[in-house]
């Protein structure tokens, strides 16, 4: 065999090995992210439940049997959230977060406060319009009546729940006059897994997060403001680099959420997205490395 033939053979073998390695890597990455069968989502040490509350937000986190609730939908969704938690056997919440004081996030909170023992309740500073809002005043009254420890969300505060860590990334600009720009943004990490919860953070708050070099990069993101085009700017989504996104919105809602602009942004970075209006309640579980998905529909 000539030297030229030998070189061709070596190059061919090397190319084959390279292709095989690429295929194996792709399969492993797919398994790590998608995991085994979807029924395993709730069986993982960490499961995140994006509850279908229609046009609103409500997320339950089960982290090594420590329960965290982020928002509770509109007033009419209060029963939905309460029953969902009770069906899972929840009787105490380690932490409840009201991301901001819009009715589609805190309307159902009074029902939650009246039905569960709550160790700690966090919310952002209220803006002037909240003081005379009935949903806000009902929530505050329920907190006082049930002697719940309520605090303003402190920037960069870190809380540990079992093997998970929850960090508050926003609000940053406490002078904001728009509730959405005061949204409590949190990041949950568990092993090598990470989840970002955006509340109704607008492009302005996203810009604040970028400017202060917040640790926004996450595997899973709860899209801000139900997929409104006023949130999820291309620059922010590119920097957060999620592999999957969840959009919480109501079927045939009056706001045309989610915006096609946001969906196209997610597609542009090959981010798979899930929608409560189409798939109902969505549960994502992880063992700290692998992800498992379960949808109601």
Description:
The chain is α/β, with parallel strands linked by helices and 297 residues long. The protein has 2 domains: 1-34; 38-295, Ribonuclease Z/Hydroxyacylglutathione hydrolase-like (Metallo-beta-lactamase, Chain A, 4-Layer Sandwich), CATH 3.60.15. It is 33% helix and 24% strand. It is built from 10 helices and 17 strands. The strands form 3 sheets. Strands 8-7-5-3-2-1-16-17 form an 8-stranded mixed sheet. Helix 9 links the parallel strand 14 (244-247) and strand 15. Helix 2 packs parallel to helix 4 and helix 4 runs parallel beside helix 6.
The quaternary structure here is single chain
Structure summary, number of beta strands: 17
Number of helices: 10
CATH topology of the largest domain: Metallo-beta-lactamase, Chain A
Cα-to-Cα separation, first versus last residue: 62 Å
SSE diagram, text form:
Blueprint: H1 3-34, E1 46-50, E2 59-63, E3 66-70, H2 78-87, E4 92-93, E5 95-97, H3 103-106, H4 109-115, E6 117-118, E7 121-123, H5 128-131, H6 134-145, E8 150-152, E9 158-161, E10 164-170, E11 185-190, E12 193-197, H7 203-211, E13 220-222, H8 234-240, E14 244-247, H9 260-268, E15 272-275, H10 276-279, E16 282-286, E17 291-295
Parallel strand pairs: 3-5, 4-6, 5-7, 7-8, 12-13, 13-14, 14-15
Antiparallel strand pairs: 1-2, 1-16, 2-3, 9-10, 10-11, 11-12, 16-17
Helix pairs in contact: 2-4, 4-6
